[in-house]
Structures are given as structure tokens and as C-alpha cells.
Specification:
Cytochrome p450-Terp, domain 2, about 280 residues, disordered N terminus, about 50% helix, 3 strands, single chain
Length: about 280
């Protein structure tokens, strides 16, 4: 049984362990087991995984608990390679390069900075996935689901996640390609079709097209593969990881130590003009 099909184990409160004195399952995992000279990952010997599986297959196994079928492997590989890079448009790149410029001894802190900047505003697929999974669960016709989505997410966020891009106004090239390839592989299903319907509905309501962005496309594809929104959010950051590492090493080797933002590059002060504290401010 795959992880997606396995019921979630109940989370325990620390007080339960203290009260019972039974700490036998305080640290518990179903991901791997390690003993002297032997490692099992999701039940498979690690030697077999290293020898017989690709990186994509291994990642799928670790996250989902079962080996992927050929179609699942192809779709998951599409996700992992879709982030690529888009110069300095991503805030994650700026965060990573700033950190690398101040800490050039290792790429790891800068990688962490870039990952930490991968959130709802910077294009994480987690919120679009939550939206799509929740809405598909309503089992409503697309027109009714779209109207309800607009209402629900206007209240939650003031916007519908997974749409729009600061640079790509007509179409997000990565999202277009991901959608097209997913369709060709039979991976654009309930969540993807609903995302298409939302795009059409948004255009009708707003009077202009607001295209599906990469976060939305990845959310739909991964939701159709049965991934949890938390995993989907993590995969969004990880899929951009190689681009971050490339930027970080470029910054350390060829960049500017201790980057700043001077006035010429947009720094602007709009506080009060120079003023002075009265000499006798605290005098009795």
C-alpha cells in the first residue's frame, strides 16, 4: 500500500508520553530502517535502490512509499526539471546570492536562504494544490466550483493562487510546456482540468487573461499524482534547487563580495529629514 493510501497515524501529544511513561514509539518512522551493515528504504535494500533506480524513481519512492509506474516516473521527472531558472526574477535567487556574497565559505547557508524565500508570494505550488484538492473534493460542476473558489480564496488571500506572473502576462512558458507534456502523458486529470476551468472563469470575470503560472501547473500535476500539499510545497522549492546552486557558485566565484543596494539601484529613503534630539529632553 502506498503512502498516499495509508491512513495518517494519529499525532500524539507530549503529555501522553509523560503520563503513560511509555516512550516506545516516541520516535517512529515508516520511511527507512538502519541497522549494522543494512539499510532499508521503504522496505527495499538501499543497494538495490542505488543499482536499479534513477534519481527520479528514488525520490518518488521515498516520498510516496511505493515504486512509480512508468507514467508516474515521467510526470514526476517533468516536475523535477521544470524549475530551471529565470535570471533574477525569483526572489529566492536574490536571497541566495545575498547570503553567498556575505558567506562565501560554503554554498549551504545560501541554499537555505533561497529555500526559505520559496513561499506563497514567490511561487510555491502548495497553496494552489490546497485549493485544487479542496475544490475537487466538493464534487461540483466546474462552473459552480469556480464561483466558490473565487469567493473562498478572495476571503482567505484576496486572490486565487496559481495564476499570474510579474513578467509573463500572456502565458508563462514553463507552465504552458508542463501542461502540454502532462496532457500528452495522461497526467492532466481532475485537478488539471479544474485549473483550466478556473483560468477560463478568471478571464471572464476580470475581462482579461490571467495565465496559469508554474506553481499552478505543478500543483495540478502533483495533485493528480496524489501528493500531499505539504510535499508539493517542498517539491516546489527543491525543483529550483539546482538553479539556486548554480547562482550561488557563480556569486561566490564571480560575484561581488558583500552586496549592497545603493541609491543608483533603487534604494530610496522616504523618512523624515535630518532632525535633532533636544539637549534637555529628559531634564527634570
Amino acid at each position: 500500500m502506498s503512502q498516499a493510501q495509508t491512513p495518517h497515524r494519529r499525532r500524539h501529544h507530549i503529555g501522553e508520553f509523560v503520563a503513560s511513561g511509555d516512550w516506545s514509539d516516541y520516535w517512529s518512522t515508516c520511511i527507512s530502517r538502519a541497522g549494522q551493515g543494512r539499510i532499508l528504504v521503504r522496505g527495499y535494500p538501499v543497494e538495490e535502490i542505488i543499482e536499479r533506480l534513477s534519481y527520479t524513481e528514488t525520490a518518488f519512492l521515498v516520498l510516496k512509499g511505493e515504486l512509480p509506474q512508468a507514467r508516474e516516473t515521467a510526470l514526476f521527472d517533468l516536475v523535477l526539471r521544470s524549475g530551471v531558472d529565470q535570471q533574477f526574477i525569483s526572489a529566492a535567487v536574490g536571497a541566495a546570492r545575498f547570503t553567498a556574497s556575505a558567506f562565501p565559505d560554503s554554498p549551504v547557508p545560501a541554499l537555505a536562504s533561497g529555500m526559505l524565500a520559496s513561499g506563497s508570494v514567490t511561487g510555491s505550488p502548495q497553496e494552489p494544490a490546497q485549493m485544487l484538492i479542496e475544490a475537487v473534493g466538493w464534487k461540483l460542476p466546474h462552473d459552480q466550483a469556480c464561483e466558490r473558489i473565487m469567493q473562498v480564496w478572495a476571503e482567505r488571500r484576496g486572490r486565487v493562487p496559481g495564476f499570474g506572473h510579474p513578467l509573463h502576462k500572456a502565458a508563462e512558458p514553463r507552465a504552458v510546456t508542463v501542461r502540454r507534456l502532462a496532457q500528452a502523458m495522461g497526467g492532466w486529470r481532475d485537478h488539471g482540468l479544474l485549473l483550466d476551468a478556473i483560468e477560463t472563469h478568471l478571464a471572464a470575470v476580470k475581462g482579461r487573461k490571467i495565465p496559469i503560472n508554474l506553481a499552478g501547473a505543478l500543483a495540478a500535476l502533483l495533485a493528480d499524482l496524489g501528493f500531499d500539499p505539504l510535499v508539493i510545497g517542498g517539491l516546489g522549492a527543491l525543483s529550483y534547487g539546482m538553479a539556486l546552486l548554480a547562482h550561488i557558485t557563480e556569486e561566490i566565484r564571480d560575484g561581488v563580495p558583500l552586496r549592497i543596494i545603493p541609491d543608483a539601484l533603487g534604494a530610496h529613503y522616504d523618512g523624515p529629514e535630518e532632525r535633532h534630539i533636544p539637549e534637555h529632553r529628559n531634564a527634570p
